[in-house]
Amino acid sequence: MINGIILIRKEKGFTSHDVVKRVKTILGVKKAGHFGTLDPLAEGLLLVGVGNVTKFFDFFVGRNKTYSGIIKFGYSTTTYDGEGEQVGEKKDIDLNKIDLGELLSGFRGRFLQYPPKYSAKKYKGIPLYKYARKNLEVKIEPVEVEIFSLETKILANDMLRFRTVTSSGTYLRSLAHDIGAKAGTGAFLQELIRETVGEFDLKDAITLQELELQSGKENDLQKGVIPIEMLLEEFPRIIVSQNGSEMVKNGAMLSLKDIIEVSSGEDSENYRIFDYDGNLLAFARKDSVLHKFKPFLVFNNK
Question: What is the CATH number of domain 4-62+199-228?
Fold first, then answer.
């Protein structure tokens, strides 16, 4: 059974769902899911959890991300990217003659951002793009996002390359659109590459074609595949006895007498529970009153 995260280098034109579906087919698995949507226009790093790791969504979805891309000025589009229809007349701009510092002020740090109308963001359980395709207006609420850094370089009079580190949930299409609105010319996202998600880097990712080539045998899955035992190493590791293993598998409280070893480090909210053979059994939280550990996420390793 395959349990791990696969670092996929997504190509343009594929939806995140397309990638997950292809991973399932290549590996012959039933359980797989991505940790953070990447638009079809975008390319770059997509985390795909396989097997028990599909339960890790909440641990990874909120991690900061690094992107690079190109903003095209002159007009905006319906989708805020190059695939949408042009909105309004094209306007000339020379980025070399404007104050970029002033233009980009307000787009660093924390601020409120409206998601694109054509996005997977849901309103009453339905993705916004479904309303937009039917020309139905809905009240979209802004969400607080954070841009930790934003570096830019002028490529042409109307093209700006950028690199940014953002909080989870930040829409780069909205960023491009809003910068264009402030410039008075409109703008859209022409190119986008996701370089990092938390500690994971695009340079370590593989394409779907590479995954297929190395998937002949489970033991051949090496590059781009991170096994479940190596994930979330910031949580202390607890090794338990045979009796402790049985307790944990049944979701029972783990007593100190059944613990063989605890990795050094400060107290943590979450702990990883392993059996003596190195198999990850569960995540648990410490009950400081009872001096026991209560599993809250138990894995079936069969």
Answer: 3.30.2350.10
